[in-house]
Amino acid sequence: MIPMLGEEEAQAAADAVRSGWVAQGPRVAQFEKEFAAAVGAGHGVAVSSCTTGLHLALVVNDIKPGDEVIVPSLSFIATANAVRYVGATPIFADVDLATGNLTVETVDAVRTERTRAVIAVHQGGVPFDTVALRKAAEGWGLALVEDAACAAGSTAYGQPAGTGAAIAAWSFHPRKLITTGEGGMVTVDDPELAVRLRRLREHGMNVSAADRHASKQPVLEAYLETAYNYRMTDIQAAVGLVQLTRLAGLVEQRRAFAARYQELLADIDGLVPVRDPAYGQSNFQSFWVLLDGFRVSRDEVLTELAAKGVSARRGIMAAHLEPAYADVTPAALPVTERITQESLILPLHHKLTEDDQDHIVGVLRELAGR
């Protein structure tokens, strides 16, 4: 992933610096409002990363030690780590082979009387079935936290992926479609929940630093609960506001490249490219290909691609296979392990050309013996 950053972002950051207001301030507030509108949410709360956003989402849902939270192992490790931040136990569930996402069935298979929440990921930008999983979580009496790190610009049932989410966390890391360098957002519809999230990201203060400094009268703030410093700066938000204007165009471009990949790969035996689910559309933040009886191994494919100047990557990681979770013995996760071991992610970014795609697919054709 190559972030699309230009002179407009540089100018916006410079303007923020020149304004003298570089910490969390008016540009953050504007970015929160505009991002929430873009993803179909009532309120946005800017934070320092998607990871801190997931942490706060569990805090406001009162997840504590002794509780279990169901998560996909097939996700960046931050998804599972956030559960440990609150002292709860992550329980790994398997995923759907086509989408890489949790389903009602895979969650139900590991649900126990200690389960208090589910973190569902829109993996690589492919939306999970929001209607089915939200309805199931409500019926089970579980909090549903949506890890939308990769999902800006994706849709489910004709609406932005964040529409209707009780709480969702988003990422602006440089590998995402839009970036603020580092940074994240939590979106909610409940205004009272938004107020508490803003308090929690700023040391538990009952009045924000921006409002305190803007007041013409002395303000004696109070600290209402033990909280965190998870703020975004106005410099980051200035960049984010410009990036947000690019989102629709970036999604359109990536979907066009994804469609062309799918067409070019269609007649190569043993390769199954990721596609939209029936209920939604991906922003194709990642374009992965699953090996299904391909004549050489995934690692051999990666090695040959690299030798031909193609920077492909291994499939999405599985947290339960990492040393950090060596103390966890999950239920069988056959689909998760297959996807992480037998898939690779092909280049897809705004600088990609049709010639690049032809070269990449040509290497894959050679490996397939076609």
UniProtKB/TrEMBL annotation:
The active site is at K176. Gene3D superfamilies: Aspartate Aminotransferase, domain 1, Type I PLP-dependent aspartate aminotransferase-like (Major domain). The modification N6-(pyridoxal phosphate)lysine is found at K176. GO terms for molecular function: pyridoxal phosphate binding; transaminase activity. Its cofactor is pyridoxal 5'-phosphate. It comes from the Bacteria. Keywords: Aminotransferase, Pyridoxal phosphate, Transferase. GO terms for biological process: polysaccharide biosynthetic process. The keyword Ubl conjugation does not apply. Pfam families: DegT_DnrJ_EryC1. PANTHER family: DTDP-4-AMINO-4,6-DIDEOXYGALACTOSE TRANSAMINASE, TRANSAMINASE. Belongs to the DegT/DnrJ/EryC1 family. This is Glutamine--scyllo-inositol aminotransferase.
